[in-house]
Write a structure and sequence with these properties.
Oligomer: single chain
Radius of gyration: 23 Å
CATH class of the largest domain: Alpha Beta
CATH topology of the largest domain: Rossmann fold
Strand order of the largest sheet: 3-2-1-4-6-5
Low-confidence stretches: none
Number of helices: 12
Structural class: alpha/beta
Length: 329
C-alpha cells in the first residue's frame, strides 16, 4: 500500500476515534463500501453496542444480492441486523430520489423502535443514535448541486454532521473522509463490498459530478474537499443566524404577520421572516420568484382595498384584513 493510501486509511480511523455518539448506535448499512467501512470501524470501537439496518428498496434486480451480502457480513462479525423492505416507488410529481430517501429515513426510524436481540436471542438495549455513511465526496456533490440550483445559505450549508429527528440523534461522522479512503480501509482489512449499478448511471446529475467534475477539481484544487467543507460550515453558521433573526422578527410582526409591521422591516428581513413563517407554520417553502412577488405586493399594500393573492409553495398567500394568511385547497 502506498504512503498516500496509508494516510487515507488513517483518516478513517481518526474520524471514528473522534466520533462520540450516544450508544447503542445503529448504522444505515447498504452493503456498499462507505457503510461497510463505517459499520466495521464502529463495531471495532464499540463491540456489542453497534447494530446494522439494511433497507431493501426493491427497485433493482441486485437488491436481493445486497441483502444477502449484508446478512453474511453481519453474521461473520456477530453484528445484529434488521432488514427493512419498503416500497420506494415515487408519487406523481415526486422525484425517485426523494421517494427513496423519505422511505429510507422512515424505515430506519421504524427499525429503531423494534426490539433487538443478539444471536443467542437475548434482548438488547434500544438504539439511541443512527449514523449515515455520507463522506467528503458526497458533501462536495451536495454543495455543487445546491450551487447549480441557486440555493441560499441554508442550501449551501449542505449536509449537517449532527441533527435530531424522531427522538434520535443522527450523525454523519465521515463527512471529512474522502470516498477513496473508505475503499482503501476495506482493502487493508480484506473486506469485500457490493457496488450499486445505479452509481454508474450517468443519467443522474450526482453521478456525472462524481465521474466528471471531481477528478478535475482534484487536479486544479487538491484541497477542495476541506476548503469546500469550510465554505459549507460558514454557510451553516450564517443560516443559523438568519433563522434566529427570523424568529425574532416573527415575534415582532405576529403570527399571522401584520402587513404594516412587515413594511417597517428592510426588504431582506421581510423575505427572511416570510420564508421562516411559511416553513415553521405550514411546512412549505416559496421559490425565489414567489417570495420576491410576495414582498413586492406587501410593499405596495397601502390601501384598504388592496388585494394580495399569490401562489406560494404548496398553497396561496392572501391578504386577510390587516394580516397575511396562507391556505391550500
Amino acid at each position: 500500500m502506498s504512503g498516500k493510501s496509508k494516510a487515507l486509511v488513517n483518516v478513517v480511523d481518526q474520524a471514528v476515534a473522534a466520533f462520540d455518539p450516544p450508544l447503542p448506535l445503529a448504522i444505515a448499512f447498504s452493503g456498499g463500501a462507505d457503510s461497510s467501512a463505517l459499520l466495521l470501524a464502529c463495531h471495532a470501537r464499540w463491540p456489542g453496542l453497534v447494530r446494522a439496518i439494511h433497507v431493501h428498496h426493491g427497485l433493482q434486480e441486485a437488491a436481493d444480492g445486497f441483502q444477502l451480502h449484508c446478512e453474511h457480513l453481519c453474521a461473520q462479525h456477530a453484528i445484529p441486523l434488521k432488514v427493512c423492505k419498503i416500497d420506494a416507488r415515487h408519487e406523481p410529481g415526486q422525484s425517485p430520489e426523494d421517494a427513496a430517501r423519505q422511505g429510507r429515513y422512515q424505515a430506519l426510524i421504524d427499525a429503531t423502535t423494534q426490539s433487538w436481540v443478539d444471536d443467542e436471542g437475548r434482548e438488547l438495549e434500544p438504539v439511541c443514535s443512527i449514523a449515515l455513511a455520507q463522506h467528503a465526496d458526497d458533501q462536495v456533490e451536495t454543495l455543487l448541486l445546491a450551487l447549480s440550483r441557486g440555493a441560499g445559505v441554508a442550501g449551501l450549508a449542505a449536509m449537517p454532521f449532527q441533527w435530531q429527528r424522531a427522538g434520535l440523534q443522527w450523525f454523519r461522522p465521515l463527512l471529512a473522509v474522502p470516498g477513496q479512503a473508505l475503499r482503501d480501509w476495506l482493502v487493508q482489512k480484506e473486506v469485500a463490498w457490493v457496488e450499486d449499478p445505479s452509481n454508474n448511471d450517468q443519467g443522474y446529475t450526482r453521478n456525472r459530478i462524481r465521474a466528471q467534475l471531481l477528478p478535475v477539481l482534484e487536479q486544479v484544487f487538491p484541497q477542495f474537499r476541506s476548503t469546500f467543507a469550510r465554505s459549507s460550515a460558514n454557510c451553516a453558521q450564517a443560516a443559523d443566524l438568519l433563522s434566529d433573526l427570523a424568529a425574532s422578527d416573527l415575534l415582532a410582526v405576529g403570527v399571522p404577520p401584520r402587513i404594516r409591521d412587515l413594511q417597517a422591516l428592510p426588504l431582506a428581513r421581510q423575505s427572511n421572516v416570510l420564508r421562516h413563517w411559511l416553513l415553521s407554520a405550514y411546512h412549505t417553502t416559496p421559490t425565489a420568484a414567489q417570495l420576491a412577488q410576495l414582498v413586492a405586493q406587501v410593499g405596495v399594500c397601502t390601501t384598504r382595498g388592496h388585494r394580495i393573492h399569490i401562489k406560494v409553495g404548496r398553497g396561496f398567500v392572501e391578504r386577510q384584513g390587516a394580516s397575511l394568511g396562507w391556505y391550500n385547497s
